[in-house]
Design a protein that fits this description.
Number of strands: 2
Radius of gyration: 19 Å
Helix content: over 70%
Strand order of the largest sheet: 1-2
Distance between the termini: 36 Å
Oligomer: single chain
Number of helices: 7
Order of helices and strands: HHEEHHHHH
Structural class: mainly alpha
Length: 202
């Protein structure tokens, strides 16, 4: 995928959507992706940040804590990228991102936070692999583009919900058409490989 296409929302969502077209698999991702991101924020809470970053900490209550930590930095980078793809959708994602960060930081205060977050993280990844293998019957996108898949996943899930609510129907239509074409292209390639393999066996 070219550098220019990184900021083309149609190409990015068509790429991701080609791996997530089955309704069951989409439902699994809508449930699991936010939990994967949230648990990752718990697990990376103590990662070091540049010395130039000021220490800002505020405890709203036992369930909401702000800390200018490593997760805040990479989620901010995610939001900047999402804003480049679709500013309005990115803006509507901000509350979700903020709640995830605040609750994840508060969860870190629990005695067994890291172990519990690791379990959530692992279970959700397993569920997604099952969704791909059983429902989608395709390998996950991360095997072809791990950075794009991991970074795009939260935004893809958010947009799936927005599209269901009627957001940008023309864009949704274009992406669905693009996904259909991309799936057909991939299936043809996979079919050609299988036929070539069988021909070698003869």
């Amino acid at each position: 995928m070219s550098a220019g296409s990184l900021f083309d929302i149609r190409k990015q969502l068509t790429f991701y959507g080609a791996y997530h077209s089955n309704p069951t698999n989409i439902a699994i991702h809508i449930t699991c992706v936010p939990l994967i991101l949230w648990s990752a924020q718990v697990l990376t809470n103590d990662f070091p940040v540049p010395h130039a970053i000021p220490h800002i900490y505020h405890k709203f209550n036992d369930y909401l804590i702000f800390d200018l930590n490593f997760p805040v930095l990479y989620i901010t980078a995610y939001l900047v990228y999402y804003a480049a793809l679709d500013p309005v959708a990115a803006l509507t994602y901000v509350p979700t991102a903020v709640i995830s960060l605040l609750t994840a930081r508060a969860f870190v205060e629990r005695p067994n936070a890291l172990m519990e977050a690791a379990i959530v993280h692992a279970v959700c990844w397993i569920a997604q692999f099952i969704g791909h293998g059983v429902a989608e019957k395709r390998a996950p996108a991360l095997l072809d583009n791990i950075v794009g898949a991991v970074v795009l996943a939260p935004f893809f899930v958010h947009l799936e919900i927005l599209f269901a609510l009627g957001y940008r129907p023309a864009l949704h239509h274009d992406i669905k058409n693009g996904v259909g074409i991309e799936i057909a292209r991939i299936k043809k390639i996979e079919g050609d490989k299988k036929r070539a393999a069988k021909a070698k066996e003869l």
